[in-house]
Amino acid sequence: MKNLLNDQNFSVEIKIKEFSYNQEVLFKNFNFILKSGEWSCLLGGSGVGKTTLLRCFAGLQTEYGNIEVSCSDGGQLGTRISYMAQNDLLFPWLTALENITIGNKLRGQKIDEEKGLYYLNLVGLLKNKYDLPDKLSGGMRQRIALARTLMENRQIVLMDEPFSNLDTITKLKMQDLASELLKTSTVLIVTHDPMEAIRLGNRVYVLYERPGRLKQPIKIDKNKPRQITDTNLLELHAQLLNQLSFEQNNGLET
Amino acid sequence: MILIRALIIFLSILLVWHLITVVTEAPPYILPNPKLVIKAFISNSDLLFFHGLITLTEILLGLTIGLVFGIISAIFLAYYQTARQWLMPILVVSQAIPVFALAPVLVLWLGYGMASKVAMATLIIYFPVTAAFFDGLRRTNIGFLDLALTMNASQWSILRHIRIPSAIPALASGFRVATAVAPIGAIVGEWVGSSEGLGYLMLHANGRMQIDVMFAALFTLSFIAIALYYAVDAFLTRAVSWSPETHFNIKKD
Prior knowledge:
By secondary structure, chain A is α/β, with parallel strands linked by helices.
């Protein structure tokens, strides 16, 4: 069994006419396209609405605005996305294996244990299959969350600062693993960390101002994950940091 | 270790009690000394066993029925706003009426038999179970719900696989409280009107100045209540072992 995702030839477009929360307009006439098979990274100051935008893609933010999300091939988005949050969101009462196969259970399908074990093996945690999340380290938990995302086998993966709670070395390892296993997926990853964006993104977007706007994306063509020692990357990193700190100093929040 | 500690506490209480009877020279019909009570305990063991079993049955039935009704009510309250608006005030008001005051009415309606005592125990535990479980159901981690939605889960499977399991620790706390108070319901019911059970035996013995028997009945009741509480506690701790208690007195290096 190979992790072959289905046809990837479609992009996803979000159009937000208006989105306000607490009488503040976060987005107005906002358009954003996720290119198929690419990793898009979204950076921006805290409180600018990165997570909100991601949640709009996931269909979790329908109450406060007029949001339209569509796929270029006319397919339904709801069955094509999977979601990975900052917190690993493992159910503490379920074992590692049960956590990975929870999607089956929630949809009332037959639980595909074999496939679950395959992905558990892929993230290197086969021996922990019967462990409760409580017993595992932060890195291990995040790997299980990644295996659960893979198990869902969706074309679009939305990640909200998935590695921000990990220590630096574990974080680098997780980035390598995720980019290897989600090579062919369309990914939107919200992050605070410019280095993460530079390592993983095909396009790096910076969200700023209120209502939110996007800067011209930085395109990076090199193969992922890129090595942190690459001098070109360090240059990009510096450029991105400049942009971000400029926005922070002139933007809404200090 | 726990057993040894319990035994030491028990023996110390007996010793203090014995000393009090010796020092105060209280007559046995006011405060019998432990030896008399133990004697009464042994000579009436059949009687105590019979009445104890009745009371235990009432408590267990009350706990079961109260638990079932509590769980159903909490789910109902959590899911239907209208139910919440109309039933919550009634629930709260119902708690303002002391169960003791209801006992005569229940005996009048349900008779001298077991039904009125079971109803009392059920009433007394219904509220803690409902309140605790309802609270737990409302506090589901919002991230879990988001995740479930992106996995295209139905409302029903969210309830069954996410909301209910994550509310189990809260339900367990409510049920612990319920186990501790359930004997009150059964005993009060027996006091008000019955012909069986430890509450009846205590009143009966008291009326005939058999204070030693009364104390023996009291001890049997305490034993039942404590054993039941620890059994339930041990079971619940094991059942929700995924949500371990954190200790207050963690040693720092």
